[in-house]
Prior knowledge:
The complex is a heterodimer of chains A (about 100) and B (about 120).
Chain A: H1 2-35, H2 40-64, H3 70-94
Helix pairs in contact in A: 1-2, 2-3
Chain B: H1 2-34, H2 38-68, H3 73-99, H4 112-124
Amino acid sequence: MNNLLAVTETILLFTTIISLIGISISLLLLLYRIITGPTNADRAVALDSIGMNLMGVAALMAILVVTTKFNDVILLIGILLFIGTIAVAKYLEKGVIIDRNMD
Amino acid sequence: MIETWIELILNMIIAFFLLSGTFFILSSSIGIVRFPDVYTRLHAATKASTLGIAGLLIGAFLFMYVSHGIASGKLLLAIIFTLLTAPVSGHMISRAAHRNGVKPILKNRTDEYEASIQKYVQKQK
């Protein structure tokens, strides 16, 4: 019985490693879109998605090295990603980020 | 005996959540590479990527709860925050792209947002 439990824990370890490889391939595809994006909006979309993938990498690393210290990192990446995307969108729209006259 | 079975089944559930999350993130990235337009790429970037992140974080939460008995609320908070903010950022990027002059690829349809802006400008004058 304990032998079967050890087998499932090995399956879980291999699943984590396979997920890390898949997210690495996803990051390479997004890097291609960032380099050869036709417009700047394409690059903003790919950058937003790269932040999402970094949250997944942090969660997988928290499973791999068994710790709970990465949970703060996941939440912080989420918040900074939202603020950064809003700032990039405002910059693409008008060229200024903080505007005084709200229209 | 029964605890061993429960832990075994929970391990398989965690593996299923991790694999499905990775599949959705990878399909979102393939969609970003292969779609022809900014506005179609935003569909792949906001919807599928959000679902994939939710799957990965649920898998991490279950792993922490099963193996250590730690119920980390920050992971659930990160899921809720991602579900709230991904549509907002997608809308901001699409509006910025449209005002920046990026033309959508349209087949047999008119640009209704541009027509609405023109009607609003006509009403202002």
